[in-house]
């Protein structure tokens, strides 16, 4: 199998299409990248910037350049020595504009008689034989807006097919609508009455049943061509947790690809591993991100930060937020599960739904993959019975129904048991990532996808153990620091983490900010001010867009479906104050000045660890410079590749840059590490911790990959307060070394840290060949 030594993620869209991506290939080679990694390129909803709303899985998107440009990019990459990794989306398709999706259009036109009825996951009986489409507004007489136009049913700009022989001359739109295989309903009814499976709570992304062989074949026809014509070297699978049978899907995909490199976008909770029977090389790296971030957090900051923004313990908070999801936007999924409980169970429907919702709420990971992960369901049963003792009897009845293997290995996975597994991940994602992560705000650099914010910091022993385990169990899994889904860019998080080293100063500043520009929600105010400090300087437009999205995701003081205008006005006034009021601006800029240099130290340290640790490092587009983005769409902004190309030229012919020189120091570290991994893979064949000794030994983290030694500084403000490195030494393995970043030479044995980190807070040492 051809495996990458590193990847570089490009976001392909109409404004940066496949031809534009091909033009970056010489730069990527110069940077040291091994594979180019593309966001989804199959035909998506027109105007889609992300590509996860695929409308035609059988073609490359013309808006993204089309098949010819895709083929040309792959050839250009291969000719330059780069592999190609492509993101694909098997779980769902985009249905926002039915006319753009031939499968969905046919389903709406023909209902159960459509060939594609088997492709979509519709509970026809629950809708009286019709698919409920939540599109109508709240006004009176909405059905009067239904019009028959050119053989279609129109509702404002929305267009729908009309079944054959169901429209007669003189019929009103409402009369025609009543005869269709779909029912247009008020958008608010989706939470409890939707009868097709979605991606999370997104009504415009309809689940697809790729477990059906012909559906798999047609949905992967273009992907099959890529491998048949040797255009692509590997695939990244979006959201496998939504599939009915992830293991079976990966087996079929392995056959289709001829055994190509495969990654899954899978969130692993601390201590959780991928099922051993999955035919893939690992995840997209959120689990590694969580480990790296916590290396640069000072555990001494936990108590004062806890006291500054009192909130309930995270485990209890997420129970409330997840239960809010099961009773809210995903209640229709809960009710669908309840309908599948057999009558022989003798459970009242309402109590059955209540118990199912509680089990989903108490589920400790994203999903199980029965028979794998049965212990997670057993844990959820115990937790649910403690939380809701009044439902103990119902939970005991449901347990064997949700895990048919309890009675023995001959058990068969029922539709109820399968669908429960597909649903638990939705609840976790919406309740934790998209709600609790915006409420648990003591230190927001910890609130990242795939992480547990209740785990505050990791010491060097914990990190060494995690990286050694990665080397032994998943050497080809991906390592990420920033992605298109991260809540904050890697360097935004790195600066916010510095607050753990100055908790008292941060708490005092937070109090002053809240006094000068109060918003009435102390927990969210902490998140808001941390975001501004972490991303500063940023435009006013970016700041306003972020706080509006973040506050509505928190779903506390304001909401997506019912914005609180009074609260949001105060919040936006506070953002304006950061730019316009000198007393507020000076507090922010003073804190930025205090945290900037140690934040850059954290950034370089985290980047070097990510690029050299076991696994395959991915550089998210543009993050070879400082990456101070916030949540999407902010993290999908255009990248100035010309500046980065010029940066490599400047590094080749100029002096070593200062750490504050516009991101050039990060470009230097990134390019040197990527080139070394690409050109000298034998130096990255193992993992061994490198010890330090002396007064400041805890401020060093170092490891030897088999000839390449990475060493970084951690907790730089604490180091400064303690008087610097003093007698601290890093004990290098025997041999002679040169630093790939600065060129400085070193001999094995104790090396004074003050010399090792003389130029930068990081070092990448290469053992000289005999």
Task: Please outline what is shown here.
This protein is α/β, with parallel strands linked by helices and 770 residues long. It has 28 helices and 25 strands. Among the domains are: 7-91 and 210-284, TIM Barrel (Alpha-Beta Barrel), CATH 3.20.20; 98-207, 2-Layer Sandwich (Maltooligosyl trehalose synthase, domain 2); 314-437, no CATH class; 503-595, Arc Repressor Mutant, subunit A.
Which helices and strands, and how do they pair?
Elements: E1 7-10, H1 18-23, H2 25-31, E2 35-38, E3 42-44, E4 54-60, H3 66-79, E5 83-88, E6 92-94, H4 102-110, E7 131-136, E8 146-149, E9 152-155, E10 158-161, H5 173-177, E11 182-186, H6 190-193, E12 198-199, E13 202-207, H7 213-219, H8 221-228, E14 234-237, H9 246-257, E15 261-264, E16 282-283, H10 286-294, H11 302-308, H12 314-326, H13 331-339, H14 349-362, H15 374-387, H16 392-402, H17 415-433, H18 460-473, E17 478-479, H19 490-497, H20 503-516, H21 522-535, H22 540-554, H23 565-580, H24 582-612, E18 616-620, H25 641-653, H26 664-679, E19 688-690, E20 692-693, E21 700-704, E22 708-713, H27 716-721, E23 729-739, E24 745-752, H28 753-756, E25 762-767
Parallel strand pairs: 1-2, 1-18, 2-5, 5-14, 7-11, 14-15, 15-16, 17-18
Antiparallel strand pairs: 3-4, 6-13, 8-9, 9-10, 12-13, 19-21, 20-23, 21-22, 22-25, 23-24, 23-25
How would you characterize this protein structure?
Pfam families: Alpha-amylase. This is Maltooligosyl trehalose synthase. One of its GO terms (biological process) is alpha-glucan catabolic process. One of its GO terms (molecular function) is (1,4)-alpha-D-glucan 1-alpha-D-glucosylmutase activity. Residues 11-447 form the Glycosyl hydrolase family 13 catalytic domain. Helix 12 packs antiparallel against helix 14 and helix 22 runs antiparallel to helix 23. Among the domains are: 7-91 and 210-284, TIM Barrel (Alpha-Beta Barrel), CATH 3.20.20.80; 98-207, 2-Layer Sandwich (Maltooligosyl trehalose synthase, domain 2); 314-437, no CATH class; 503-595, Arc Repressor Mutant, subunit A. The strands form six sheets. The chain has an eight-stranded parallel β-sheet with strand order 16-15-14-5-2-1-18-17. Strands 19, 20, 21, 22, 23, 24 and 25 form a seven-stranded antiparallel β-sheet that branches. Strands 6-13-12 form a three-stranded antiparallel β-sheet, with no helix packed on it. It starts with 6 loop residues before the first strand and ends with a strand. With 770 residues, it is α/β, with parallel strands linked by helices.
């Amino acid at each position: 199998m051809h495996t990458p030594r590193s990847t570089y993620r490009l976001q392909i869209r109409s404004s940066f299409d496949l031809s534009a991506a091909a033009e970056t290939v010489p730069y990527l080679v110069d940077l040291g990248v091994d594979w180019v990694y593309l966001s989804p390129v199959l035909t998506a909803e027109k105007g889609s910037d992300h590509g996860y709303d695929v409308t035609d899985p059988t073609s490359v998107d013309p808006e993204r350049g089309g098949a010819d440009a895709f083929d040309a990019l792959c050839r250009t990459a291969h000719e330059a020595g780069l592999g190609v990794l492509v993101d694909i989306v098997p779980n769902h398709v985009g249905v926002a504009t039915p006319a753009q999706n031939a499968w969905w259009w046919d389903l709406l036109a023909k209902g159960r008689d459509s060939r594609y009825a088997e492709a979509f996951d519709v509970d026809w009986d629950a809708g009286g034989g019709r698919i409920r489409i939540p599109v109508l507004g709240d006004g009176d007489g909405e059905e009067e807006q239904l019009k028959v136009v050119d053989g279609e049913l129109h509702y404002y700009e929305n267009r729908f097919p009309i079944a054959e022989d169901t429209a007669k001359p003189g019929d009103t739109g409402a009369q025609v609508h009543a005869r269709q295989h779909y029912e247009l309903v008020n958008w608010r009814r989706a939470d409890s009455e939707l009868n097709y499976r979605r991606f999370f709570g997104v009504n415009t992304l309809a689940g697809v049943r790729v477990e059906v062989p012909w559906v798999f074949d047609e949905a992967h026809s273009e992907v099959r061509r890529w491998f048949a014509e040797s255009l692509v070297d590997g695939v990244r699978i979006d959201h496998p947790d939504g599939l009915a049978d992830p293991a079976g899907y990966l087996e079929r995909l392995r056959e289709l690809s001829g055994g190509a490199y495969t990654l899954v976008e899978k969130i692993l909770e601390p201590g959780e591993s991928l099922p051993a029977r999955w035919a893939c090389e690992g995840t997209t790296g959120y689990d590694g991100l969580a480990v790296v971030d916590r290396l640069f957090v000072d555990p001494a900051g936990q108590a004062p930060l806890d006291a500054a923004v009192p909130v309930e313990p995270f485990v209890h908070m997420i129970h409330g937020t997840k239960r809010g999801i099961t009773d809210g936007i995903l209640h229709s999924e809960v009710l669908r599960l309840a309908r599948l409980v057999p009558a022989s169970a003798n459970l009242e429907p309402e109590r059955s739904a209540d118990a199912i919702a509680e089990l989903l709420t108490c589920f400790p990971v994203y999903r199980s993959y029965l028979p794998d992960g049965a212990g997670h369901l057993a844990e959820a049963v115990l937790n649910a019975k403690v939380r809701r003792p009044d439902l103990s009897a119902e939970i005991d009845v449901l347990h064997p129904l949700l895990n048919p293997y309890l009675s023995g290995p001959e058990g068969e996975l029922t539709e109820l048991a399968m669908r429960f597994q597909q649903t638990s991940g939705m609840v976790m994602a919406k309740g934790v990532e998209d709600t609790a992560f915006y409420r648990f705000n003591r230190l927001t650099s910890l609130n990242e996808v795939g992480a547990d914010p209740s785990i505050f910091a990791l010491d060097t022993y914990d990190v060494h153990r995690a990286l050694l385990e990665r080397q032994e169990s998943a050497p080809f899994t991906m390592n990420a620091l920033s992605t298109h889904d991260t809540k904050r860019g890697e360097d935004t998080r790195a600066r916010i983490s510095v607050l753990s080293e100055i908790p008292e100063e941060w708490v005092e500043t937070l109090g002053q900010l809240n006094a000068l520009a109060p918003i009435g929600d102390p927990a969210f105010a902490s998140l808001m001010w941390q975001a501004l400090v972490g991303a500063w300087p940023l435009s006013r437009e970016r700041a306003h867009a972020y706080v509006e999205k973040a506050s509505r995701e928190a779903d506390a003081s304001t909401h997506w479906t019912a914005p609180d205008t009074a609260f949001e006005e105060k919040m936006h006034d506070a953002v304006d104050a950061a730019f316009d009021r000198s007393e507020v601006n000076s507090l922010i800029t003073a804190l930025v000045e205090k945290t900037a240099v140690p934040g850059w130290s954290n950034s370089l340290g985290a980047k070097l660890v990510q690029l050299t640790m076991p696994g395959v490092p991915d550089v998210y587009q543009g993050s070879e410079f400082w990456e101070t983005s916030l949540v999407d769409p902010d993290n999908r902004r255009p990248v100035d590749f010309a500046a980065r190309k010029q940066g490599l030229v400047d590094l080749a012919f100029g002096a070593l840059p200062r750490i504050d020189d516009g991101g050039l120091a990060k470009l230097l570290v990134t390019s040197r590490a990527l080139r070394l991994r690409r050109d000298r893979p034998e130096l990255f064949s193992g993992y061994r911790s490198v010890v330090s000794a002396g007064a400041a030994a805890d401020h060093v983290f170092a490891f030897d990959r088999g000839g390449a030694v990475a060493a970084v500084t951690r907790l730089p403000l604490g180091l400064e307060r303690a008087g610097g490195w003093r007698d601290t030494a890093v004990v290098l393995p025997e041999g002679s070394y040169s630093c790939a970043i600065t060129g400085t030479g070193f001999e094995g044995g104790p090396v004074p840290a003050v010399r090792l980190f003389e130029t930068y807070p990081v070092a990448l040492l290469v053992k000289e060949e005999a």
